Amino acid sequence: MFKIKHVFIVFMMASMVFAGCKSRFEKIRLSNNLTKKYQEAMRLYGKRDYSKALILFEELSQKYRGISGAETLNYHYAYTLYHLKDYTTARYQFKFFADTYPSSQYAEECRYMSAFCYYQDSPNATLDQENTYKAIDALQLFINLYPKSERVAQASKLISDLRGKLEDKAYANAKMYLDMGDYDIRNYKSAVVAFKNAQRDYPDIKYAEEMDFLIIKAQYLYAKNSLENRQEERYTEAIGFYNDFVEAHKDSKYLKDAEQLKKASEEGIESAKKYLAAIAEDQAKYKAFLEKTKKPDTVFNNTILKKSN
User: Fold this and answer.
1) What domains can you pick out in the chain, each with its CATH number?
2) Is 128 strand, coil or helix?
3) How far apart are CA 139 and CA 182, in angstroms?
4) CA distance 131 to 273
5) In whole angstroms, what is the distance from residue 18 CA to residue 26 CA?
6) pTM of the predicted structure, to 2 decimals
7) Which of 134, 196, 135, 137 is nearest to 171 (CA)?
8) 221/241 Cα distance (integer angstroms)
9) What's the CA gap between 171 and 288, in Å, rounded?
């Protein structure tokens, strides 16, 4: 995918160049003098004309392999892509540089920049977080490879930022289940599970207190919307979550609302018990009625049997 994106960028840059008359740049680009092309590419890079520099670096990177100047060329080639915000291709080129020139003075920097490009490509929390996970892995690899680097502190901060994004994603997903409970009560139970999983995966998640409260709320709504014969068990579980919440968050701003949910759960248990008791009483009365209405039939049937004998 990144190759397609990169080729498109190069094509667009080349098209812009062809649109004008044959300039000094065009003459150098079309020449076979690699030294002049190299010098022009570096000059354009220095002037921050990355669009034109990329066209030359793209060609030179293929022809300079294994010869003098290749290291410096590839270093600037990677940064050209970075400055053009083609982070997908840039991270590949930075990694290529670090793998190809492990003893270079720029190897550590390029390994870091390869990871940083993943960070730049990490989307907002509402989207798929594949690149976020890859960024964390790449930054952690950098820390492991260069534990004494001055960039370790910044890499650690970036990892913290990325984990914060994953926390946001986990919170939003769990909240979505809670919000969709009106459509299917099983979503309330899924919300409880999702909130718990988020706290398991991210023990220091910044939403911990709110999540513990929302677990009570989700379980309460799950119980409230259940059949009466399942309500007592589910309300009891909500009360258990309330007890855990109070123990962990004694001074929580959600404490009053949590207490109301506990009280409602206790009332729900009593209501369910009364309902089930009334149903049991009605069933008993109906059973007694059936037994009573059967007796005359039995006497009548016995009389008929005697006469027939």
Assistant:
1) 1-118 (1.25.40.10), 207-309 (1.25.40.10)
2) coil
3) 42
4) 52
5) 8
6) 0.76
7) 196
8) 13
9) 55
